């Protein structure tokens, strides 16, 4: 059973897959330690230049053309995430423990089937704010090998309150200007609320934002999209303009299948995000490979590995959470050519801001090539080998 929040679009080469549409070398793959994310490395001072970059994120970027209004909107977007989830992407599982530990009803609701349970869960997730919902079996490979508490600077064993059976994976749309904080806030609210719903009907569950487990593999496994050159989950509906939240539960749920619609093939020739990346952090190799840059990449998965350290340093220079790899991607939606603030009736964005310099300057060549094509037309010309 498939039950995404929006009707399936016609004309795309969507294919259900029995396996993840990603090559994994089971001998080389190792579970990833949360402390090895670039953010945790920077916070822990294992990556001092990254620490300086993080400090610059909070500083004024008026010298780079960012207006007070831009900063205020971005900060407001993060607000609920900072209250509920302790501030992703460095959230620690024990920080949100209080949200997770509400009581489980002693009278479990008796679903007639796993399909019925999935239908209820998906409808409720959408009601609570998820834009896309998929379900996949729990897969220990994606759980961090150890958790990390950035406040205490300590690693923790990857102990879960129970072994989950199913993972509800939710995607939250972010706007065309990719002010991602609002996506994090929404997924913190929806995740905690969906967890509450599941415990109210008598089953254990816990919610996660960027903590507990890798989100992109779960997004792929739950059929929400494919991983792209920019290292992000590209969904059919919103391209890379999503954040991904997860709710783990002991409920037996009917699961979705991975799906592909040619993103990898398209990325092999597009390279727009790599052209636009101000940190040179995105690979320009034609094909995915098993090459990694440093401890911030886990080995054993064929992909275009992002150099997360270079990325974070670029954030420091821009004094903002860049996101050019989202705003430059042609798979966003039909209106991808129109600057986001203008589209939303907000004041025109200052063109000297780094994100927009990159989008409008370096990627100009690709924009010229693509400007006559809508996103749906682009998807229709994608053909898998
Ligand atoms: S966020 Fe910016 S610097 Fe980082 S990979 Fe994306 S485009 Fe490059
Ligand atoms: S910009 Fe192009 S290469 Fe980069 S993720 Fe999007 S489609 Fe792939």
TrEMBL record:
Entry superkingdom: Bacteria
Keyword set includes Metal-binding: yes
Any Pfam family the entry gives: Fer4_7
Claim: Zinc is one of the keywords in the record: no
Entry keywords, A to Z: Iron, Iron-sulfur, Metal-binding
Composition bias, Basic and acidic residues: 348-359
Location of the 4Fe-4S ferredoxin-type domain: 257-287
SUPFAM superfamilies documented for this protein: 4Fe-4S ferredoxins
InterPro entries for the chain: 4Fe4S_Fe-S-bd, 4Fe4S_Fe_S_CS
Gene Ontology molecular function: any one: iron-sulfur cluster binding
Region of interest: Disordered: 341-362
PANTHER family per UniProt: IRON-SULFUR CLUSTER-BINDING PROTEIN (PTHR42827:SF1), IRON-SULFUR CLUSTER-BINDING PROTEIN-RELATED (PTHR42827)
Protein name as annotated: Reductive dehalogenase domain
Organism: Desulfoluna butyratoxydans
């Amino acid at each position: 059973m498939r039950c995404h929040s929006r009707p399936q679009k016609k004309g795309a080469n969507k294919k259900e897959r029995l396996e993840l549409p990603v090559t994994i070398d089971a001998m080389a793959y190792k579970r990833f330690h949360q402390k090895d994310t670039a953010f945790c490395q920077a916070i822990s001072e294992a990556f001092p230049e990254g620490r300086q970059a993080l400090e610059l994120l909070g500083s004024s970027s008026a010298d780079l053309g960012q207006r007070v209004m831009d900063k205020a909107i971005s900060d407001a977007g993060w607000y609920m995430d900072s209250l509920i989830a302790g501030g992703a992407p460095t959230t620690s599982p024990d920080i949100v423990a209080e949200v997770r530990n509400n009581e489980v009803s002693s009278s479990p609701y008796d679903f007639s089937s796993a399909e019925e349970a999935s239908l209820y869960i998906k409808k409720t997730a959408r009601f609570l704010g998820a834009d896309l919902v998929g379900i996949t079996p729990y897969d220990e490979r994606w759980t961090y090998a150890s958790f990390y508490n950035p406040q205490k600077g300590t690693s923790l064993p990857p102990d879960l309150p129970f072994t989950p059976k199913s993972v509800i994976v939710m995607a939250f749309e972010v706007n065309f200007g990719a002010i991602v904080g609002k996506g994090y806030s929404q997924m913190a609210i929806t995740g905690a609320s969906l967890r509450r719903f599941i415990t109210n009907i008598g089953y254990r569950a816990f919610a996660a934002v960027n903590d507990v487990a890798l989100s992109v593999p779960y997004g792929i496994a739950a059929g929400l999209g494919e991983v792209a050159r920019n290292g992000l989950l590209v969904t059919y509906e919103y391209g890379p303009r999503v954040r991904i939240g997860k709710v783990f539960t002991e409920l037996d749920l009917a699961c979705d299948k991975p799906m592909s619609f040619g993103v990898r093939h398209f990325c092999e020739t597009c390279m727009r995000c790599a052209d636009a990346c101000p940190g040179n952090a995105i690979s320009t190799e034609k094909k995915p490979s098993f090459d990694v840059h440093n401890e911030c990449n886990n080995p054993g998965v064929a992909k275009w590995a992002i150099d997360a350290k270079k990325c974070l340093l670029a954030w420091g220079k821009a004094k903002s959470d860049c996101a050019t790899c989202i705003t430059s991607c042609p798979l966003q939606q039909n209106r991808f050519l129109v600057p986001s603030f203008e589209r939303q009736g907000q004041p025109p964005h200052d063109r000297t801001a780094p994100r927009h310099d990159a989008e409008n300057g370096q990627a100009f060549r690709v924009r010229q090539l693509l400007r006559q094509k809508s996103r749906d037309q682009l998807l229709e010309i994608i053909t898998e080998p």
